Amino acid sequence: MAKTLHILNGDSLAEGIGSLQLKGTILVWREMLCAGPTSVEVGGEQFFRKRSEYLGEQYQISHDSYHNAFVTPMHELGAIRSFDTVHLWFEYDLFCHLNLLGALAWIYQHGFEGDIYHVCSGRIKGENRLFGLSELSPEQLEHHYSQKKLLTATDLELAQELWALYCEQDHNALIPRIVQTSSFDYLSNCLKSHIERFPDSRTGLNLLESHILKLIQSHTVKSEHQLCGYVLDRQGFYGYGDTQISKMITSLRPFFGKRQGVLHLNKKGEKVLQEKLNVIDIMENSVMFGGSKKYQWCYDAEANTLIPRT
The pTM is what? Predict the structure, then answer.
């Protein structure tokens, strides 16, 4: 009998997918590879050590918690090459797509030779926003599962190439892949969003950080908690959770304050949005995206390239 492995993007989906009565083994991919250092070999000791140290330092996730949530389930799964088919349940955003690339690298590096399918969510007919898999009704999940895409050899080669490039210091090589066609419907959007995570050469803030300051400027926001909610709903293709957004808001505190119960930009924040001030030197400099240090590069929007800082 054929053995099927379903790799899910999170516990929320694991809870909601029961109605489908899927046949096979389920593995929940509890990682966030969009943040912190990575290594090309996924699942090796170096990879686990890097990830555990980063998550402990930045998100107070203990070594034991990380191993229990991610490492142990992978080990208990056994040899992935013993499965005949893998279904990857990862949605439209950058958070999910980098986890997807990491999962595909792990699958490839451990000798799997069967069919690999991608079950994705995003646009739904008649709706004006993008939907995550865990937001779908049982009927919608069933439909998305029926529309799963068999990944071709070309898709898999592209995924391996992108993962290797993400683990390098210079992410300029990712930029030409933005226009490359593949079975990954939202890959181009995610790659573009990733490049725009580097600080803008004019301001020192990236696109989402500037967007957060603009929300403070244009809305009546009474707390950082409320601001986090606004950003979660208006973040586009990033797919960040509230923990990541809150961390980002905290890093932006030098540019806003509170007056009469409402958040307001200070003079420094106003000058940044006016492109009259570059604040890259006062931003935290330990952030990493895969193999690249965020603040060792600036994004030149006009030239659409990353420029190394000297």
Answer: 0.95
